[in-house]
Write a structure and sequence with these properties.
The chain is an all-beta fold. The chain is 0% helix and 51% strand. It contains no helices and eleven strands. It is globular and about 40 Å long.
């Protein structure tokens, strides 16, 4: 059974850097044809894809966040991480990590972690 679990601070002050980690069990983040994404949902809005790291380690970030976002991984811990710098209240959202498998669908999701940006 594949499971993803997000972890990180629930509250971040404006201008600080948000760091979230997704711990994966039941699969390897280096397994061929898997892609590991970060997705968020601001209050009252739809899902927004942020970025992903592929099984080979290459990353892709949505252009609107590319200047202040990065996705990395620790293969020894089977985890991948999102860092979002210079946060503002507009970054308040539920943040999810998810797997896209060989069929091209997001087939496994974490439960989500609420992040509020507030002073």
């Amino acid at each position: 059974q594949v499971q993803l679990q997000e972890s990180g601070p629930g509250l971040v002050k404006p201008s600080q850097t948000l760091s979230l980690t997704c711990s994966v069990t039941g699969d390897s983040i280096t397994r061929m044809d898997t892609y590991w994404s970060w997705i968020r949902q601001p209050p009252g809005k739809g899902l927004e894809w942020i970025g992903r790291i592929a099984y080979r380690g290459n990353t892709l970030i949505i252009p609107s966040l590319e200047s202040r976002s990065s996705v990395s991984r620790d293969t020894s811990k089977n985890q991948f991480t999102l860092q979002l710098s210079s946060v503002t209240p507009e970054d308040t959202a539920v943040y999810y990590c998810a797997r896209k498998g060989i069929l091209g669908q997001y087939d496994y999701w974490g439960q989500g972690t609420q992040v509020a940006v507030s002073s």
